[in-house]
Amino acid sequence: MRVLGVDPGLTRCGVGVVEGVPGRPLTMLGVGVVRTPPDAELSHRLLVVEQGIEQWLDEHRPEFVAVERVFAQHNVRTVMGTAQASAVAMLCAARRGIPVALHTPSEVKAAVTGSGRADKAQVGAMVTRLLRLSAPPKPADAADALALAICHIWRAPAQNRLQQAVAQHQAHAAKAANATHAAQAAQATHAAHATKGRTA
Questions:
Q1: CB atoms < 10 A from the CB of 134, how many?
Q2: Over the stretch 10-44, which tens digit does the pLDDT of each residue have?
Q3: Mapped to the 3 state alphabet, what secondary structure does the chain carry?
Q4: Catalytic residue list
Q5: In what order do the strands lie in the sheet with 2-7?
Q6: For burial by CB atoms within 10 Å, which of 81, 93, 140, 146 has the most?
Q7: How far apart are CA 124 and CA 52, in angstroms?
Q8: What's the gap between Cα 53 and its chain centre?
Q9: Residues with Cβ < 8 Å from 59, sequence gap 6 or more?
Q10: Contact 142, 18 (CB under 8 A)
């Protein structure tokens, strides 16, 4: 499984590609950040983010894109920029038919470090260890992007099993509902015939 992790941001959008399967050593294929000038127009900054992500998609051809789920923070302006960059990443993936997964910061931290309250230094240290790197990726946005990719590789099988279980449950429920409806219709038809026979 090859995953492009995206830590969305307008000034620095972290990107990292990890390949592997659960239970086996993972391999980093690339890591970096897409930067935009803070003084540029918003539309131009979003275009730069889009072009940067497209280059990563072209170069690495990931099977999945994992994006950090945006949560409300005190700084509304920061949240808006993060949400807009996140939307651009999802759009780039959807345009190519690549499945997108959203993971919360606490999910990523828990998957990589074992604690949903880990700080950035702890995340960077574990990413370095898990990917057998010589030093933590810089800036932290890059390390976070790799952590997102790692999280998805480890969580995807469990999520797929859950989705399959939900789908099977819904299919069984729909089948049972159809059977009940058919039985009720048959009873109604039988009752109608019986009534007609008595009045004839």
A1: 5
A2: 999 999 999 999 999 999 999 999 999 999 999 99
A3: CEEEEEECCCCEEEEEEEECCCCCCCEEEEEEEEECCCCCCHHHHHHHHHHHHHHHHHHHCCCEEEEECCCCCCCHHHHHHHHHHHHHHHHHHHHCCCCEEEECHHHHHHHHHCCCCCCHHHHHHHHHHHCCCCCCCCCHHHHHHHHHHHHHHHHHHHHHHHHHHHHHHHHHHHHHHHHHHHHHHHHHHHHHHHHHHHHC
A4: 7, 68, 141
A5: 27-35, 12-19, 2-7, 64-68, 100-103
A6: 146
A7: 23
A8: 15
A9: 30
A10: no
R_g (Cα) of the chain, nearest Å = 24
Token pair for residue 124?
A: 């960077």
What pTM does this model have? 0.78
